[in-house]
Amino acid sequence: MKQTLTRLVLTLPVVWLVVSLVFLLIHLVPGDPILQMLGDGATPADVTALRHQYGLDQSLSVQYGRYWAGVLRGDLGSSIRLHDTVGHLIVARYPYTLALAVTALGLGLALALPAGIAAAVRRGRWLDQVLSVVSLFGLSVPGIALGPVLILVFSILLGWLPVSGAHGGGAHGGIEWRYLVLPATAMGASLAAILTRMVRTAMLEELGQDYIRTARAKGLSETAVVWRHALPNALVPIVTVVGLQFGALLAGAIVTEKIFSWPGLGRLAVDAISNRDYALVQGCLLSIGLTYVLVNLLTDVVYRWVNPRMRG
After folding, report:
1. Could you state, in order of their start, the residue ranges of all structural domains in the chain?
2. Are 186 and 259 in contact (CB under 8 A)?
3. What global pTM score does this model have?
4. Per residue in 134-146, pLDDT tens?
5. Which of 105-119, 130-144, 155-169 has the highest mean predicted lDDT (pLDDT)?
6. What is the third-level CATH fold of 86-310?
């Protein structure tokens, strides 16, 4: 418990850094959101009034202080283009991104665990070689290239799955599994390739340990040796990788959501960047960044729980 509290306290400077970087980086982006919103026909008076309304006429330090005050109150401001609070927009879109990331993670684990175990158990045989080639291919093909291929094959040519969106009735109709398959596959394929190689390496290391030879000498079946003894210990380092990759999935969802018109936080962020909607971009990036920090914290806690040597 003491180590967990210490880890939580150490996370606070990271949170401060994330909030500060999000604020500063957005203000370094060239362009004036007020001019883009009003258009070329706007009068100087209109520009001045709207810039004052959104607090953009104040110094950077004052805006930074007001932004921190808003973050602590849970008030992330209002969207210039969508005329709604940033918090409401994020709450409406975040479940879509989370569902996509969780599904991609589940798909990656479902493919990687049996593949990695099989490759380790049959090291050097044809199955191991085939899985190594497939995983290497999965690592080499980014989601931005795999996504259009999946759409071409399964949506346009075969007509099995829809091209885009999350629901037949639009973005606010919930999530239908048919709309989730392709974007989750595009994100989960590279993750499965990474985890397959990780599981194989970890399993090979455990299968060469003395306690495995002892278990086999006692007459235990190979199934019991692999699943009851080697796998639980092999999962210890994999937990850290899974946590980090889940955070990467949330960040990588930006590209996938744009390709599949998925109504999640990533697509909202891309549209906000195009419109120079500072408050909305800040809110989206802050949500993704803080989620990444939270996932890393939870990963550290789970790692200490599954690894007896880290307890105390």
Report:
1. 86-310
2. yes
3. 0.79
4. 888 887 877 778 8
5. 105-119
6. MetI-like fold (1.10.3720)
